[in-house]
TrEMBL record:
Residue span, MHD2 domain: 790-901
Domain of life: Eukaryota
Protein name: MHD1 domain-containing protein
Residues in the signal sequence: none
Domain MHD1, first and last residues per copy: 516-659
Biased composition (Low complexity): 102-112
Region (Disordered), start-end ranges: 93-116
Matches recorded under PANTHER family: GLS PROTEIN (DUF810) (PTHR31280:SF16), PROTEIN UNC-13 HOMOLOG (PTHR31280)
Amino acid sequence: MPIENTAGYMIPVLPSNDLSYPFGQLGLDLSDSELRETAYEIFVGACRSSGGGRPLTYVSQSSGRSSDKASSLPSLQRSLTLTAASKVKKALGIKHKKKNNGSESNGSSTENRPATIGELMRVQMRISEQIDSRVRRALLRIAAGQLGRRIESIVLPVELLQQFKSSDFPNQREYEVWQKRKLKVLEAGLLLHPKLPLDRKDPSAQKLRQIIRAAQDRPIETGKYSEAFQTLRTITFQLASRSSDDYTPDTCHWADGSPLNLRLYQILLEALFDVEEPTSMIEEVDEVLELVKKTWGILGIDEKLHNLCFSWVLFNHYVSTGQVENDFLFAADNLLLEIKKDAKSTLDSVYTKILCSTLNSMLEWAERGLLGYHESFYRGNIDLMQSILSLGLSAATILAEENPRENGGMKVIDVANSKVDIYIRSSMRKAFNQEIEKARVSRKSTKSQLNSLPSLCILAQDVTDLAFTEKEIYSPILQKWHPLAVGVAVATLHSCFGQEIKKFVSGISELTPGVIQVLIAADKLEKDLVQMAVEDSVNSDDGGKSIIQEMSPYEAEGVIVDLVKSWIKTRVDRLEEWVDRTLQQEEWDPQANRERFAPSAVEVLRTIDETLEAFFLLPIPMHPDLLPELMSGLDRCLQDYILKAKSGSGSRRSFLPILPPLTRCKGGSKLNGVFKKKDRLQISQRRKLLPNTTTNGNDSSHSIQHLCVRVNTFHYIRKDLEVLEKRAIAHLKSNGIREGNFVKKHFELSLFACVEAIQQVCEATAYKLIFHELDHVFYNGLYTTEVSSSSRIEPFLQELEQNLEIIAETVQENTIRTRLITNIMRASFEGFLLILLAGGPSRTFTLEDSSMIQEDFKFLMDLFWSNGDGLPSDLIGKHSVVVKGVLPLLGIDTSLLIEKFKSLVVDNDGHVSSTKSRLPLPPTTEVWGPGEANTVLRVLCYRNDKEATVFLKKNYNFPKKL
């Protein structure tokens, strides 16, 4: 649980219950209170001689202990006065902290304040006055009995054992507990953790073990003349005198073996923290620490071990008191600077072992927070992160110097960089996983909500926020040890989100708005992260290449493009299948709807419109880039529809009759006498076979009305294409695309197919009507006997007029109707000429027929003019030019006609191009006109007089009959 510090904001408490103790276990049952009493005895014993200064009388706080006032222990009796600012605190970086004690106003604080340093230390170490008094008396007696001996030259627990009997304690049990504690201390200091390694078979050691075991059942007699006690004294002195140190030959080593000495020294240093306010250090820290250092001789402590132990004590106290006072952490880190110097200047393996253990413990604890610093630190306590990071990296750097092999050959200067890199990546992954969990919970809560964002979109935004938070709050601190802190963080987030995107893409089965939203969010996130990485690495050695290379592209835009292309292909394929299936079932019935065009056209255009609408609803940024592919596919589908819809309609050529071979009439014959009724019937039957019609000509789906519906359909499609084009442009504009970027028309194929289909089907309808539907009254009926009232043009005009009315009703669009009727007029004019020039052997004309034929043609033109309600006169005139040019030939005298023909076939030199002096046969070009030799020849072939017959016989020998 976070706790509130003095500044009022919440800070986290990193795990402390599993903090590794670095100094090792004692291996026997010595409680904290027992160790504290032992440490206090050593402290008081070490301070009994201050090496100068006047002795001060100890003043007891208990009125009932007045007899102790005569006891004199120098140094400890220094009076407590207001002192200047602590040099120790200043050196450690610990701020002066004014106590907030409301009782100061009434003076009670002054009354309760210890009067001397000795009393202060007693209170700090939680030693009762009774125990304190007993210790001081014993030490005075010891000093009196061994005048001149230093405290380091005696085995203190043994000396203390001799000073007291059971009568000096409230009861026998308390005395026995006290005695057993002294023996356990001897066991710890001389047997379990001696200064020098001890041979287990050492007789003194074996004897001491026996004595300690025996004392478990029966207390040792400690009288002056007790043989058992003298044996204990002798054995402990022998064991304590073992040393490889020649500089202090009279020093007893009973408490200077690790870890006992470090545990006892730790207890003494912990007395520097105010027992009443654990998050504060006592104001008298300088004086107390000066006295604590006097125990170095007994405990085997030097400056190096002091710095190491003090750093641990500061660190451990910070952790154990709830991580509230950051100054302690900062002080521990400051001491690591001294420890780093100490480590370089010593080759002591014992020190190195303790050093590594201590630093590993600090580092392990620090890394619990640093490997997931987003969980532990935030804007309000970011300074704490810097302190913990500094401590951890200092520990890691020293450890790397002490154990270069374990560092994998890495340079020591790179250790901090490497560690911070690990912390960033680990913390970012943890933070990312937390965001995933939040997104998962959010997805559950919004499942029932409409239009809710996909969870990966939310995650992408959260990751973006996380990246910017990292850059703003954490990176400024991390960059002190890692120049590319931002780059490493965003690269890690990029990798984490990339894994999610990879899984997402692999599971995509179809394109949906949600899928595109996720991919666009991923693309935006990637761009933001890459931009941050680039900005962070501008001044780096490699320009950030290593970080950028680490960020494998999501290629979200490419995935979107591929998905949209697949989406387009699916839609186009479906439309193509629909076109094939629907056109096979379309009946082209003009009664299907009042609009007179095919329902399938309405459906196909609606589908195209819906597809376009769906395309622009896709939340993608590349509409302009992919629109051409969609439009091309739709254009092909619509073109396919048009081509298939017009197939089978026929063409002008498919309905035109085949020109019969040239023949001639028998000169001077009368039509009524030339052909018998039977002959006319045979010719009529043969004539019906002449039109070059297709098998589809009789198909009900290709009737004149149905063909009109097709024309209407193509016109409807062409008009709607303009609407679709405008909608596409409007959609693009709504997406912020300028009009200049889409000038090209998108339905070019369909538009061209429509124009072509309208032209072809109009023409096919016209020629089908004239040469197939009305063949019996026109090409196979008109002028087949003599040009008389019975065989003139009136029947044809009547039926044609009826068909034109039906067509006008079916084709309601003026422009298309005009085009279709114009084609019918052109077909009828062409048919009229074919009757006159290629009507076959059943037709012959005299000069007298010319006026009636011209009159019939005028009737035909009048039908299309319809008193001004029909086609424009100039349009009729334009298409009637050829017929009007040929008709006068029918009224020219035969001899003049022959001369005209000769003039047309004679070459430029005036010679006949024939070896037999016969006129050449002009080619049939089907281009009719008064200046065309073939046209004049055909007029002569159908001229019913002798002169024409003789001329044709002489020059061409045409048959009289086919």
